[in-house]
Amino acid sequence: MKFYAPLFLASLFVAAQCFYVPEEWLKKHGYNVKKNTSSRHLHGKNRINPKKSGGDVIPVGPFSDDFTQWLETAGYADYNFPSLHLGINASYGGKEFKDQELKHNPVIFIHGNSDGALDDGTEFSSGFSATIKYFLSKGYTSAELYAVTWGDRKLDKSFTRIHSCATLKRLRKFVEAVMEYTNVEQVDIIAHSMGVTLARQIIKGGAVLDLTEICELGRTIKYNVKTFLGIAAANYGLCMCDIDTATKLPVCGVRVGFFPGSSCKKHEDSSVSCASATKQDKCEPSYSHILMGINGDIPEFFGSMVREGENIFSFWSEEDEIVGSNSVWGRKTSFIPLSNGFKVFPNMKHHQLKTDTVAEQYKAIVECTV
Asked: Which molecular-function annotations from GO does this UniProt entry contain (predicted)?
């Protein structure tokens, strides 16, 4: 079993994707925490065309004028998808003109905890700029690439975030809006970290019970997703979210957080732990209610598990400083059940799995293989 000392030293203050870590700790362990303040301010009119700088194509938000105006007239204004109060990089996508034709299925990007649509200048908030840049270089246009920000991108609030009805309903509506705007029957979805489990729930649809309300997301949209790619997910929770942490930090919560379960059914004497258990132990713990619902482990309440698309792929690293070795009670927590394929990247950190695998992401979407 691998032991990740820096991560456990911060066990009560979780790192960006799932936990809050003080800036002093981040700096000590080599993270870039310098803010890029220029991305926090609006400069002139909305921009949709890629900005060229030193020969590179850089995606620049917010949404195109055409998409922004369409959202306002089509009944989506109240969802505030552009989130301009967070800056121009809080959204991306849209046609340059009304009758622009699409040559590819639209790709929708769903980020993780404390991240955003595009790069905001810190390691934990790099958005999907790198992926969008790569797709643009391969012939995609902004009319075929869509990203929105959920949450306020504040790292010090990362431990408070859950799979809430508010977030799920807003993301579900965003997917519906993109499909309606582009007039397509299918989209592709790439999600990272907490964005993976959020995306899986909005695709599944149905009822959700969070800490304050019960909400209905509607019918499943699994048939409307061609390819679903999940990167660095925690589908079975995180070992760091033990029962003590789950009672203190909402993000680790038992109902709508990343609680992995507290014991192995086959080894009630605690001879195995969350991280040391193997597949042969057949632990079958009772873990986060929402994750069990997504994975079809409590069908009597939340229905059976659904395929999130025609093609499903999972990416992860066993050196991920957030997810750790990826083993949670003997299961790979980043493996999406029913995946058509998966790819394990050696020696990659949590956000590197998003920013440094763009060619592999493109292959998964375009060639439907890994």
From this structure: lipase activity
Token couple for 277? 């258990």
Strand partners, 264: 267
pLDDT by residue (tens digit) across 154-183? Answer: 989 999 999 999 999 999 999 999 999 999
CA distances from 320 to 2, 6, 13, 24 (A): 11, 12, 17, 20
Please state, in angstroms and as integers, the Cα–Cα distance from residue 52 to each residue in 59, 122, 126, 196, following that order. Answer: 9, 21, 19, 31
Query: Which residues, 6+ apart, have CB-to-CB distance to 296 below 8 Å?
Result: 302, 303, 304, 305, 306, 337
Candidates 105, 136, 134, 221; CA nearest to 173 is: 221
Distance, CA of 117 to CA of 111 (rounded, Å): 7
Q: CA–CA separation, 186 vs 147, rounded Å?
A: 16
Q: What is the pTM of this model?
A: 0.86
Q: At what angle do helices 165-182 and 194-204 cross, to 10 degrees?
A: 70
How does pLDDT run across 185-215, given as a tens digit for each residue? 999 999 999 999 999 999 999 999 999 999 9
> In sequence order, what E strands does the chain have?
51-53, 56-58, 91-92, 107-110, 145-148, 187-192, 207-209, 214-216, 225-231, 311-316, 327-328, 331-332, 341-344
331-332 and 145-148 beta bridge pairing: unpaired
Domains of the chain with CATH codes: 5-367 (3.40.50.1820)
Pairing assessment for the beta strands 207-209 and 214-216 based on DSSP bridges: antiparallel
The structure tokens listed for 55 are 């020969």
How far from chain centre, in Å, is Cα 254? Answer: 20
- Can you tell me which residue has the tokens 């700096």? 27
51 — phi, psi (to 5°)?
-90, 135
d(CA 233, CA 199): 11
Residue 10 has pLDDT above 60, yes or no: no
In degrees, rounded to 5, the angle at the alpha carbon of residue 134 between the alpha carbons of residues 129 and 50 is: 65
Cα–chain center distance at 85: 21
- State pLDDT tens for residues 229-264: 999 999 999 999 999 999 999 999 999 999 999 999
Between CA 42 and CA 61 the distance in angstroms is 10
Q: Is the peptide bond prior to 250 cis by the omega test (within 30 degrees of 0)?
A: no
